[in-house]
Amino acid sequence: MKEELKGKNIIIPENPVSNFLFNNTRSGLIWLVIRLYLGYAWLTAGWGKVTSEKWVGSEAGAGLTGFIKGALGKAENGGDVSGWYASFLENMVLPNAKLFSYCVAFGEVLVGLGLILGLLTGVAAFFGAFMNASFLFAGTLSTNPLLFILATWLVLAWKVAGWYGLDRWALPFLGTPWNMRKRSKKDQTISS
User: Fold this and answer.
1) Does position 29 have pLDDT exceeding 70, yes or no?
2) Burial class (CB within 10 angstroms; exposed 0-12, middle 13-18, buried 19+) of 112
3) Cβ-based neighbour number of residue 185 at 10 Å
4) What is the DSSP string of 60-125?
5) Distance (Å, rounded) from C-alpha 71 to C-alpha 100?
6) Are 125 and 31 within 8 A, CB to CB?
7) How far apart are CA 148 and CA 127, in angstroms?
8) Among candidates 113, 137, 121, 107, which has minimal Cα distance to 174?
9) Rounded CA separation 43/65 (Å)
10) What contacts 168, CB < 8 A, 6 or more positions away?
């Protein structure tokens, strides 16, 4: 049996539910609702930071410093923040609070816009999930678990999640993986 399988590419068919959710453009309406919800959450959170002096204004970094000190307090009490993450916050983020403050504020706005517009949906959702994970590591629950789960689903559905958005035109223009092979074969034919 092993000899028969050696060197063969085995394709396991996808089940109908995941095939519909992650490969069928008709599921785009489901993803549209999730995208708009997540996008609104990120955009409003980011806009609040972008318009705050403590995040990107004259006191940039003050808002983030307060957040980090709260997380470090949770680590000291043996609470919700792991030692390795507290060390990262204390030694990397805190000394560069102004830079990280700008990154968080504008990152949240960009994630929100990307999701609302359906532009590079999978990338936007990935960075949203990354920020949610960072907030969770810092001991902040709030809506972060739900937002993380929904963003992870959007990452999995990247091919169709932006169908009712700009990805419908942007992904073919940028050269999605399924179009790269076709494009490179055409280029080889034309250049020959």
Assistant:
1) yes
2) buried
3) 10
4) TTHHHHHHHHHHHHHHHTT-SS-HHHHHHIIIIIGGGHHHHHHHHHHHHHHHHHHHHHTSSHHHHH
5) 15
6) no
7) 10
8) 121
9) 21
10) 118, 162
- For residue 60, give every residue at least 6 positions away whose Cβ sits within 8 Å of its Cβ, in sequence order, or none: 53, 54, 98, 101, 102
Give the angle 62-112-30 at the CA atoms, nearest 5°. 145
Convert the pLDDT of each residue in 179-188 to its tens digit. Answer: 655 555 554 4
Number of domains in the chain: 1
**How many residues in the chain?**
192
**Residue 39 located in a structural domain:** yes
Q: Is 173 exposed, middle or buried (0-12, 13-18, 19+ CB in 10 A)?
A: exposed
Segment 106-133 shows an average pLDDT of: 97
Residue 21 domain-assigned?
A: no
Structure confidence by residue, pLDDT tens digits, 66-111: 999 999 988 876 678 888 999 999 999 999 999 999 999 999 999 9
Q: Which domain holds residue 44?
A: 34-52+98-183
Element spanning 135, H or E = helix 121-137
DSSP letters, 31-53, are HHHHHHHHHHHHHHHHHHHHT-T
Percent of the chain at pLDDT exceeding 90: 72
